[in-house]
UniProtKB/TrEMBL annotation:
One Gene Ontology term of the molecular function aspect: acyltransferase activity, transferring groups other than amino-acyl groups
Keywords, comma-separated and alphabetical: Acyltransferase, Repressor, Toxin-antitoxin system, Transferase
Name the UniProt record assigns to this protein: Acetyltransferase (GNAT) domain-containing protein
Positions in coiled-coil regions: none
Domain N-acetyltransferase: 45-150
Organism: Desulfocicer vacuolatum DSM 3385
InterPro entries reported in the protein's UniProt record: Acyl_CoA_acyltransferase, GNAT_dom
Catalytic activity: glycyl-tRNA(Gly) + acetyl-CoA = N-acetylglycyl-tRNA(Gly) + CoA + H(+)
Length: 173
């Protein structure tokens, strides 16, 4: 495999070979195989893929991004009391997966950072307070927690990260 810095993260398109993607988590494989294109067409989410220049058909990893709002009661009390009394705007990483053939090379971290940077860029035009992710299992939860995500009050699988904390976390460099 080429060096990670050569990878490109681009919007999913019809040229990508989604059928060959396998991360060995059925829900994540099925999403990219069957649902991602429909979600894009319906403006439910945007899907971005990691690809190598010169081999832009192979999907090495992907993530989906959409919006949601967080009820104040879901946030930790120390944060909630500092915020206005209405739902807080957020971006949702609905899914993030890396192909089994390239797991362990840091592509997951690269995809996560790209999702956060993309959200930060949009947040200059429209308010977004935090990133939210639904961890599919304990391994995924551990992955996000190592980058500063914490559990929302009402769920052990839904985690969030204040965008303000992104620049202060050395794990993102």
């Amino acid at each position: 495999m080429r060096h990670l810095r050569d990878l490109v993260i681009a919007p999913l398109n019809t040229d990508h070979d989604r059928a060959s993607f396998h991360c060995n988590v059925d829900a994540l494989d099925n999403y990219i195989h069957k649902q991602a294109g429909q979600d894009i067409k319906r403006s439910i989410s945007r899907v971005f893929v990691a690809e190598q220049p010169g081999n832009s058909k192979e999907v090495m990893g992907y993530y989906s991004l959409s919006t949601l709002s967080i009820e104040l009661s879901q946030l930790p009390e120390n944060l909630a009391r500092k915020l206005p009394r209405h739902p807080i705007p957020a971006a949702l990483i609905g899914r993030l997966a890396v192909s089994k053939s390239v797991q362990g090379y840091g592509i997951g971290k690269m995809l996560l950072i790209d999702a956060i940077k993309r959200t930060l860029s949009v947040s200059e035009q429209i308010a977004i307070y935090a990133m939210v992710v639904d961890a599919i299992d304990d391994n995924a939860k551990g992955f996000y927690e190592q980058y500063g995500f914490t559990c929302l009050n009402d769920s052990s699988a839904r985690l969030f990260l204040s965008l303000k904390s992104f620049g202060n976390n050395p794990k993102y460099s």
